[in-house]
Write a structure and sequence with these properties.
The chain has 207 residues and is mainly α. 57% of the residues lie in helices and 6% in strands. The protein contains eight helices and four strands. The strands form two sheets. Strands 1-4 form a two-stranded antiparallel ribbon. Strands 2-3 form a two-stranded antiparallel sheet. Strand 2 (20-21) and strand 3 form a beta hairpin. The protein is globular, with a radius of gyration of 17 Å.
């Protein structure tokens, strides 16, 4: 994630524990962006028609979706709040920097459009089909590559998460209420990880 120094206020920070980084042992904790702030930032890269990655970078969209779909399973209540904190502030900073007059609701609708496009991955019309296949072939270990069905489930799950974000940002829903709904949905989602293909298809229909 690229962050201008003056924009660091848009992020919640946490301390990463001492560990080995690029074969270098660190003996001190290092400041890093919180998981929630990272998700908020990455969500906004999907707002193609406004503050997201431009059309000439469509090939990078599968990477963003892949990252968010892996991180979302770690969203606890604190990180959920961090996600909202950064989502709102980064969005406003980007709109101001680019001299755009889009409303928060419009920006969120642009993200919905991209996620809905990914949810049509099993159709020939899906805009990201080839980009997604190229991304997995180049960057994802063969054993870790996701099926189209899993990509679709991830897309639909993120649509649900974005609806919760929309409720908070636009309709002023309480964060605690929204998180409670997310935690319940996540528990059900995690139970699907071991489900059979037919069960995953049923979940897709439910979403």
């Amino acid at each position: 994630v690229d962050i201008m120094f003056e924009d660091i206020k848009n992020y919640k920070l946490s301390n990463a524990p001492a560990s080995e980084i690029f074969a270098l042992n660190t003996e001190v904790e290092l400041p890093s962006i919180s998981l929630g702030s990272l998700i908020g930032d990455k969500f906004l890269t999907l707002a193609q028609k406004s503050i997201g990655l431009p059309t000439e970078k469509l090939s990078e969209y599968p990477k963003q979706l892949y990252d968010i779909s892996r991180l979302m399973h770690k969203l606890d209540e604190e990180n959920f709040a961090d996600m909202i904190f950064s989502f709102e502030r980064i969005m406003q900073t980007e709109l101001t920097t680019r001299n755009l007059e889009n409303t928060p609701e419009e920006v969120i609708s642009h993200i919905f459009e991209v996620l809905e496009e990914f949810s049509k991955l099993d159709t020939s019309e899906c805009l990201f089909k080839d980009y997604l296949n190229d991304f997995q072939s180049a960057y994802v270990n063969a054993k870790a590559r996701k099926s189209n069905a899993q990509w679709i489930i991830d897309s639909l799950t993120l649509i649900y998460l974005l609806k919760l974000i929309q409720g908070i940002v636009v309709k002023k829903t309480e964060i605690k209420t929204a998180y409670s709904k997310w935690a319940s949905a996540l528990a059900e989602l995690d139970s699907v990880a071991k489900a059979k293909t037919d069960d995953k298809k049923k979940l897709r229909e439910k979403f």
